Amino acid sequence: MAIAAWGTYLPAHRLDRTLIGTALGSFAGRGTRAVAGYDEDTTSMGVAAARNALAGLPADLLPQRLLFATANPAYLDKTNATAVHAALGLPASVAAYDVGGSTRSGIGALRLAADAAVPTLVIMSDLRTGLPGSTDEREGGDGAVALVVGSTAAIGDAAQTRVLGAASASLEFLDRWRLPGERSSHVWEERFGEHAYVPLVAATFADALATAGIGAEALDHVVVTGVHSRAVRVAARAIGVAPDRIVDDLADTVGNTGAAHPGLLLAGLLERMAPGRRLALVVVADGCDVVIAETTGALGAVRPRRTLAEQIAGTRPLTSYETFLTWRGHLDREPPRRPDPKSPAAPPSLRNEDWKFGFTGSRCDACGEVHLPPSRVCARCRVTDRMTPVRMADTPATVTTFTVDRLTYSLSPPVVAAVVDFDGGGRFRCEVTDVDADRVAIGDRVEMTFRRISTAAGVHNYFWKAQPITG
């Protein structure tokens, strides 16, 4: 497995665990957990991570295949990876597949892409939740990661890592499970999971070291992760690695992001490693997967637009546990007295896919005017059918005017609507998300983000919003 690029995404919101404990009258731990916004899901977070990963990627390494892994898909039966594919503006020839259903699907997708003959975009995204007061609610977190990987031949000299050895073991036993439609996972007694996992992890880790031809002392960093926190802690001590080489699992700042967590920790580690260092990735989920890799001289040649450390530092605290419950659907609150949102129809969505999902406008070939949405007739010079498609999703903009609407239907009122002017031309009216309504101002710099506008009649309505540029 050769990694050419990576990018992470953490939602801006953080929930202090003491708010959970105060509301429920129990101890809920310390620190914070990452919380996806009311307009985010695993699909939209996957898009954000992929855009971060692809920002500086050379054209000859653009992915020719897309694998989307999550334990919490927005749709069943329907492929979620196709929405990610459309939002990224990838060519139709790029195959897009879901690899989902369990927390092991993230590392599974990464292992499947390791020997791919073409650059493959692996996206791991998860939204971890549970019933109020549950362990999943308390210890979980929301986030996504995207990695461009493939065989050594597919990535070539651009490979920032090379695999020295790997091993896997699968084990069928009742550790954690959730039936379709259930909101919270069932977990068997923790000592049973520890008893089953720890010997398996030790044996798989030894097998991986043997294939790599090195000892544990040759490893500079070791990532040990899984949703069974007790088994992970004990396994980290059992594999014979010095404690100072075990990588922080972000439990106190982000929480465990389930299927996304192995890739998230790996990406965060690569961002601060030096060339020629060795690492091990140990994933404890329905068995064990171990990958031992070494960074190359190409490390740092392609970097994400925003590092994981920057995203951890730039947060917006949630001020109430009740808001979190509302966003997760556990607290059914009275909405504004306005008509409920309507679901988008399939035929117009298909006809306008480049606009709706790819945020692609049109530029007049005669005068250069940019039109959002795309138009056949130029608003400035009035020529017809002389337009070139132009993707605007990655172009920053400036708030020209705005209004704060306290009556529009929203799970997070009030709604901030703004008119934004894009750098290089183009004006658009849209909603601004992840913003403090009392602090928004004319002249604010914003960028576009792919979000879920609403869900009605079983249909998710995805489109683009603006969000403040941070950092």
Q: What is the C-level CATH assignment of the largest domain?
A: Alpha Beta
User: What's the CATH architecture name of the largest domain?
Assistant: 3-Layer(aba) Sandwich
- The residue fraction in helices comes out at 10-25%
Count of the domains:
2
Low-confidence stretches are none
For the CA atoms, what is the radius of gyration?
23 Å
Q: What is the overall pLDDT average?
A: 95
Q: How are strands sequenced across the largest beta sheet?
A: 1-7-6-4-5
Structural class: alpha+beta
CATH homologous superfamily of the largest domain, by name?
Thiolase/Chalcone synthase
How many helices? The count is 13
- Largest beta-sheet characterization: 5 strands, mixed
Straight-line distance between termini: 33 Å
Global morphology: globular
Number of E strands: 22
CATH topology of the largest domain: Peroxisomal Thiolase, Chain A, domain 1
Q: What percentage of the residues does DSSP assign to strands (E)?
A: 25-35%
Task: Describe what you observe in this structure.
With 471 residues, this protein is an alpha+beta fold. It folds into two domains: 2-327, 3-Layer(aba) Sandwich (Peroxisomal Thiolase, Chain A, domain 1), CATH 3.40.47.10; 346-468, Beta Barrel (OB fold (Dihydrolipoamide Acetyltransferase, E2P)). Helix content is 24%, strand content 30%. It has a five-stranded mixed β-sheet, with helices on both faces. β9 (176-177) and β10 (186-187) form a beta hairpin. α2 crosses α3 and α7 crosses α8 (229-238). The model has no long low-confidence stretch (mean pLDDT 95).
Identify the notable features of this structure and list them briefly:
single chain, 471 residues, alpha+beta, Peroxisomal Thiolase, Chain A, domain 1, OB fold (Dihydrolipoamide Acetyltransferase, E2P), 2 domains, five-stranded mixed beta sheet, five-stranded antiparallel beta sheet
